[in-house]
Amino acid sequence: MSPIANPVVNPEATAFNLERGLAAFRAEIDGPVAAFFSSCVHCGICAQSCPFYLETGDPKYTPILKLEPLRLVWESEFTLWGKIKGALGLQQRVTDAMLAEWEELIYDSCSMCGRCSMVCPVGNDIQAMVRKSREGMVAAGHAPEGLAGAAVRAVKTGSPMGLQWKTLQVQIEHVQTSSGLTVPVDQAGVDYLVMLSSMEVINFPEYLEAITKIFDHAGVTWTLSTQCFEATNAGIQIGNKDIAALLVERVVDAAVTLGVKNVISPECGHAYTAIRWEGPNLIGRRYPFRVFHIIEVMDQLRAQGRITTAGKELDRLSLHDPCNLARKSGVIQQQRNLMDLVAEQFVELPEHGRFQWCCGAGGGVSSNERAEPLKLAAFKRKKAQIEAVEPERMVTMCATCRTQLEEGLEHFNMDIPVVGLTELIADHLVDKEEPT
Amino acid sequence: MTTIADPMGFLLFTKGPLFNIAIAIFALGLAARLAEILLLGRRPNFAEPRAGEWLPGLRTVVTRTLPDPGTFKRAPFNVLTGLIWHVGFLVALLLFIPHIELIKGLFGVSWPGLPNPFVDLVTAVTLVALAATLVHRLTHPVKKRLSTIEDYLIWAVTFLVVLTGYLAYNRLINPYPLALGLHILTAELFLILLPFTKLTHIFTVFIARWYNGASFGRRGVQS
Ligand code: HEM
Ligand code: SF4
Ligand code: SF4
Questions:
Q1: Which of A93, A157, B14, B85 has the fewest C-beta atoms under 10 angstroms from its C-beta?
Q2: Residue A214 placed within a domain
Q3: Which of B48, B205, B220 sits opposite A123 (nearest CB)?
């Protein structure tokens, strides 16, 4: 289906309904899903991994329960036993009312952090099945308004926040004035195409200046693209493959137009998993370029001896691993290597790396205004971790996590500033030797 | 046929025709379940992998048996009772000499067993731990919420298999053929239910863990 015929984007298209929802659930069922549902022993351990359950104490937020609609479709249509029960009229069916009730469970109370998938003793990848369930929810017309709004804006304007190139242009000029460097735009044949996230452009303009300095320092050739600068994918967050594929194609087109070898995802965890892991499958082919998170690129430059820093931060710093970057993408050691360059006193949170705790805002929770109280509740896990090691500042590498940490810490009157790792590195670069 | 009037007849029935029926339902049912899963397969994955799938998948099959330290701290009772009774059940099932002889008779393979009094002790511990899992299921808010009639049915059948075995071995039900017949009957019920209930996990857990480990492993994370 083309996005034009997609009711999320076009109100005139035939509305989504239960039947389309069930078809979308059905289309998501594969061998792993069948193996996972066949194996669940109702032990409840997954609840112990979910910040939304742990911080509310409400058993309805148990991860596996969030998948009940998908499970029912699997049982009734993909198992012999379910078909027999169906013929006897004993099989429960998914109804519109059920999906309406599950909307809160599948969106508001799940940041798709993937912790449950690491902990379930039978190995159920629950997070992957939440992602799949969202496809069914959208097609059934049960996605939160906040996410639908972001998806419409992303399709129509290129940014989920409606940000335009004009705004970015102003920021580029700012960076050029303050750094005395050039921000390359639409340069063909360079090594890296740099993507951004609107959230970052609006909340953390320091990022663009930081990478401009780092790439100049390391002698990296790079560019922004006027054709496409947004790396986040609202189609993945809401759970609609048509929209998601369209947004990925824009990035691919921009990279192909400029003939770059690599695309860099910004300090945003979700954008990275979207373009790195889901993207090629959404468009059904391999990319003609490679994809890296900015943290991976900086660590490669460090390893090649192309980043020279001087001095260290002297206060006590700790690190928040974004779920999408660490647990879901294996970027764990890189940020620690970089911290070593610039931090005198680095303390790990009690559970970190692949077992870190979510900030509570991922998976579209932060674009879904209705979920605000749950988002704050889930943050209490992170807060407790931070309290356990009492850092003076937190460092992270995802604009959504950073915003959530800042807001959450402020809400609880904790005076702990949050900084982006890229800026921290940029702050310690030694000046290049002037050519004599 | 009444069991009380003719214990020997009952035992022969459970060892003969009923055993064959149970094995047939178990084998066909399980084959159907495994086929349902494996035939679905996976879509091709076009994302550039960081690592292979096979090894991380196999590693997860093994490592998920024990929880990460944080989870253990948050749910020690759940984890420990589960582990204890599973180990106990497997010891009683696979290392009790009469069971080994049964398997030898059926498949021609055998291995050394453990002394009977030891298996007897393990069985008693298993029963206590199983009872503890039931209490946990009835009291923990998450488990209460998750549980269906099936969970209690499966608990009861599993418990009865172990209990009747314990009672028969210790001659606590008389006459002995009746005791043994009841044990075999409950084991057959267990086998018949296995492919159609969550007991399927005994086999599918390996597939589920592999898929999980493969998916994370491909992305460079040992899950
Ligand atoms: C003869 C073998 C087995 C039997 C009879 C069996 C039976 C059961 C039953 C009845 C439960 C639910 C317990 C409850 O109500 O709380 C359970 C849970 C579980 N089983 Fe098994 N199972 C067997 C083998 C396995 C194997 C081989 C694995 C993994 C490799 C496994 C992993 C689990 C796990 C992780 C749980 C959840 C933990 C818990 O709640 O205690 N089981 N099993
Ligand atoms: S932890 Fe796994 S097996 Fe246990 S209830 Fe949750 S999904 Fe089911
Ligand atoms: S992915 Fe995270 S938030 Fe979602 S159910 Fe699992 S543990 Fe909870």
A1: A93
A2: yes
A3: B205
The reply to whether residue B145 touches residue A276, judged by beta carbons under 8 angstroms, is no
- Please say whether the beta carbons of A411 and A86 come within 8 A: no
Q: Find the domain containing A346 and state its range.
A: 306-427
Q: Is A122 in the pocket of ligand 1 (CB under 6 A)?
A: yes
Q: Which residue of B has its CA nearest to A117?
A: B212
Q: Which tokens belong to A146?
A: 């906040």
Domain CATH code at residue B209: 1.20.950.20
Same domain assignment for residues A213 and A257: yes
DSSP string, A211-225: HHHHHHHHT--EEB-
B221 in contact with chain A, both atoms CB, cutoff 8 A: yes
Q: How many separate domains does chain B show?
A: 1
- Which residues form the domain of B193? 7-43+67-219
Residue whose pair of structure tokens reads 């809401």 in the numeric block: A238
Task: Answer yes or no: is A432 within a domain.
Answer: no
Q: Is residue B62 part of a domain?
A: no
Question: A119 and B67: CB-CB below 8 Å?
Answer: yes
**pTM of the predicted model, to two decimals?**
0.95
Residues A297, A329 within the same domain: no
Q: Please state the ipTM of this predicted complex.
A: 0.96
What single-letter amino acid sits at A358?
C
pLDDT in tens, B63-118: 999 999 999 999 999 999 999 999 999 999 999 999 999 999 999 999 999 999 99
Show the tokens assigned to B155: 């608990």
